[in-house]
Design a protein that fits this description.
The complex is a heterodimer of chains A (484) and B (96). With 484 residues, chain A is α/β, with parallel strands linked by helices. Chain A has 15 helices and eleven strands. Chain A is globular. Chain B is mainly alpha-helical and 96 residues long. Chain B has a domain of 38 residues: Orthogonal Bundle (Histone, subunit A), CATH 1.10.20. In chain B, strands 1-2 form a two-stranded antiparallel ribbon. The mean pLDDT of chain B is 92. The chains are: A alpha/beta (484), B mainly alpha (96).
């Protein structure tokens, strides 16, 4: 049962091969017996899961079958879940029980999905390896000494290890695509504004976007059907029609124009990863796609631009964590400043502190124009590169990350080296474009992800392109032996 | 190139009301200086004629009528606050 995709589980539930309760129990037992090795969950919610599963089975018996009726899912611990701890991977929010549900959670609840629990993540989604979590690092199911990527590392590891059929994630600079690549699964970051950010704890508000980590593109389409759409509670969610993302999965790719940015295949890319990506792109030639080299000339500006914009927005967003209204509070504060300073000092870990400091500096008097405004301008240059490229191609392809999963502890000494592991994903967030990572092969038994980048609101096309690859290859159906 | 020293870090940390351990300050100073070095690459880009981009779709703020849409949920929202009394969040005395 645990090797099935969401699409297959929907068929099995419909045929009565198993009930949602049986399915849910199977996953809860796997989490219980296997997750000690991975640490992919912060909170497991068996009571809620079984209650939702019973409800789903009842609904089915009564003939009310919603889109995801009885399908177990895991939620990244960045989504507020009513009456359940919502920690965002931080000591600061360890005491936080959310009084309300994020829109994404509401939507899954109302379509019959079952919540298995909340997955581990880098603290406040700041990290590329899941090592900044206050709850400890997550292990990569393909190689336990390796990181799963981040920040949605718990979701990626849990899906790869078949502890859940799929999970949600969020992506501010690559936090869905890079862990999907490292864990050999399918990750989808939709267009900025496609999915509501209401109840999703904010890191960098002009970049954050919720998406999916699943085994297949078809499953991502099924989940996006539920998640996408305008939400009046999120002023940045976009009023655009939501297509049925499964409807165009099997469209022909004849004549599809694929662009390979030369900047994504240059210095810094691991040679064996490059080989896997080049082989994957060749698969598309067989489908009738036309491949050409393109240029995104301002690519080298993406990482520095991001490391002004994201910390600036985070320093502002995280100011709400002040020890007064929710979250961690220090003992015996002497005065109000002492309360703020010590509560925040004790509640936040080193990476979050670094980013708050950078952002505070960049936004401080006398520096705002030189840093934040300058970065907003280079952001437009990066975005314009994509605009120009999409006049000639339909989709951009390249690696999702410059290497396969690195080992735990390997990059923690130097924050900058860690930042560079997101070099191919960050520009996509700056431009607000949809992106995916799909399994494309292995190097030394560690997975490699092929990144697909589309035009704004072109998720259906990306899913079609990903699904086509998954019909012709079996990389996505391979699982780590330890968790078979 | 900007180099941040101990007193810069202390000043920024106070602006952010962020406690950092004395012994960690030199490392933060080094980290921050390195990050600012990385960011200095932006100086090479000519942005004279470029409009700042605040929103990836150049979206504008959606407006709505100024009417009450949320119900008062004070008790529920305060249930997990560190310290409350009579519907108020408690903090150390501010005015002597």
């Amino acid at each position: 049962m645990h090797n099935k995709t969401i699409a297959e589980l929907i068929v099995g539930l419909k045929a009565g091969d198993f009930s949602s309760v049986e399915l849910t129990q199977t996953y809860l037992e796997r989490i219980n017996s296997l997750d000690q090795q991975l640490n992919s969950f912060i909170t497991v919610t068996p009571e809620i899961a079984l209650q939702q599963a019973q409800q789903a089975d009842k609904q089915r018996a009564a003939g009310n079958v919603e889109l995801l009726n009885g399908i177990p899912l895991a939620q990244k611990d960045i989504f507020c879940t009513k009456d359940v701890k919502t920690s965002c991977g931080s000591k600061m929010l360890d005491p936080f029980i959310s009084p309300y549900n994020a829109t994404t959670i509401e939507k899954f609840n109302s379509t019959g999905a079952v919540m298995l629990g909340k997955t581990n993540m880098d603290e406040f989604a700041m990290g590329s390896s899941n090592e900044t979590s206050w709850y400890g690092p997550v292990k990569n199911p393909w190689a336990l000494e390796a990181v799963p990527g981040g920040s949605s590392g718990g979701s990626a590891a849990a899906v790869a290890a078949r502890l859940t059929p799929a999970a949600t994630g969020t992506d501010t600079g690559g936090s869905i695509r890079q862990p999907a690549s490292f864990c050999g699964i399918t990750g989808l970051k939709p267009t900025y504004g496609r999915v509501s950010r209401y109840g999703m704890i904010a890191f960098a508000s002009s970049l954050d976007q919720a998406g999916t980590l699943s085994r297949t593109a078809e499953d991502a389409a099924l989940m996006l059907n539920v998640m996408a759409g305008l939400d009046r509670r999120d002023s940045t969610s976009v009023d655009q029609p939501v297509p049925d993302y499964t409807a165009s999965l099997n469209d022909s790719l004849e004549g599809l124009k694929i662009g390979l940015p030369k900047e994504y295949f240059s210095e810094g890319l691991d040679d064996s990863v490059a080989k896997v990506i080049e082989d994957a792109v060749k698969e598309y030639e067989k489908e009738g796609a036309v491949i050409s080299e393109i240029s995104l000339p301002n690519s080298q500006l993406a990482v520095p631009t991001y490391y002004i914009i994201a910390p600036s927005e985070c320093s502002s967003n995280l100011s709400r964590m002040d020890g007064v209204r929710f979250g961690h509070r220090c003992d015996n504060p002497e005065d109000l400043n002492d309360l703020y300073i010590r509560s925040r000092g004790e509640g936040f870990g080193p990476e979050v502190k670094r980013r708050i400091l950078v952002g505070t500096y960049a936004l401080s008097e006398g520096f705002y124009d030189a840093y934040y405004v300058k970065a907003q301008k280079t952001r437009r240059l990066i975005s314009n590169d994509f605009k120009a490229a999409f006049e000639n191609v339909d989709v951009i392809m390249g690696p999702a990350a410059p290497s396969t999963a690195f080992n735990i502890g390997e990059l923690t000494d130097d924050p900058i080296t860690m930042y560079l592991s997101d070099i191919y994903t960050i520009a996509v967030n700056l431009a607000g474009l949809p992106g995916m990572s799909i399994p494309a092969g292995f190097v030394n038994n560690r997975p490699v992800g092929l990144q697909l980048i589309g035009r704004h609101f072109d998720e259906a096309k990306l899913l079609n392109i990903a699904h086509s690859f998954q019909k012709n290859t079996d990389w996505h159906s391979r699982g780590p032996e330890l968790f078979s | 190139m900007s180099t941040l020293d101990k007193s810069d870090v202390e000043k920024i940390a106070f602006l952010a009301r962020l406690g950092i351990d004395e012994q960690d300050i030199p490392e933060y100073a080094t980290n921050l200086t390195n990050i600012l070095d990385l960011v200095a690459q932006l100086d090479s880009a000519d942005t004279e004629e470029v409009m700042p981009m605040a929103h990836p779709l150049d979206g504008v703020q959606r407006l709505r009528l100024d009417e009450v849409t949320e119900t008062n949920d004070r008790e529920n929202l305060m249930a997990y606050a560190p310290e409350v009394e009579a519907g108020l969040f408690l903090v150390p005395r501010v005015v002597e």
